[in-house]
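batch job 7 of whatever, protein = Methyltransferase type 11 domain-containing protein
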Amino acid sequence: MSWLAELLKDPSVKNIDVDGADRLLVHSRMLEQKPMLKEVFTSFHHMFERLDKQFLSGTGERVELGAGVFPIRHSYPDVLATDIVPGPGLDRVLDAEKMDLPDNSVRVIFGQNCFHHFPHPSLFFEELERVLVPGGGVIFLEPFHGPFAAFLFRRMFRTEGYDKDFPSWETPALGPMNGANQALSYIVFERDRAEFEQRFPQLDIVHQETCSNYLMYLLSGGLNFRQLWPNWASPLLSLFQYLLSPLDRWLALHHVVVIRKKD
């Protein structure tokens, strides 16, 4: 399967340094050629907004970590766009494990495919307890732990692993992007949920759901692979996704976790 991933990889990213300064520039150029992928990211933005209104409360800043090349700010301008490295279109650099933010100042932190890159998740949770207002929280979109996601993510990236049995929350990291366990959300919030609740009693896991746009995400090629479906036929793909929604538990590639700081 690794040979297939290499075959499908977009030529513009084949020799890219994932920790280098040019990664965001290359991904930004690729995104401009993929309106179908933009549609996927925009749907994630609207989902984040829906879950924020449904489960969180309080007043404060709304911050996105790991905003990358298509921040939530494109859909909701009040959301601060941050990343661990500087890049075009970002508001500021912010380290999730040592956030330069005042105590009790943040209503919600959004993160799309960034949590599994945190080398020390416990430091991030301590920061959450500090910066969130009571009733505020974090909403993460992360690789799912269903059979199709586990099969695929284990084989997609040379720089990231997928190990549901890894004994530690901490994954050896060689850089901001190089070295990660894409199964981290499963490990912390499913396998080790009792430990999480014991160590961080101020933080409640209040909601989890799967994402149903896996066909569009997969066939768009994401930010690293060739697109396998024409843009003009994306409405047909949306229909297929709707018909397959009863199978999301087995086919979904991503899931969302909402964590709320107790009032």
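notes: The chain is about 35% helix and 15% strand.
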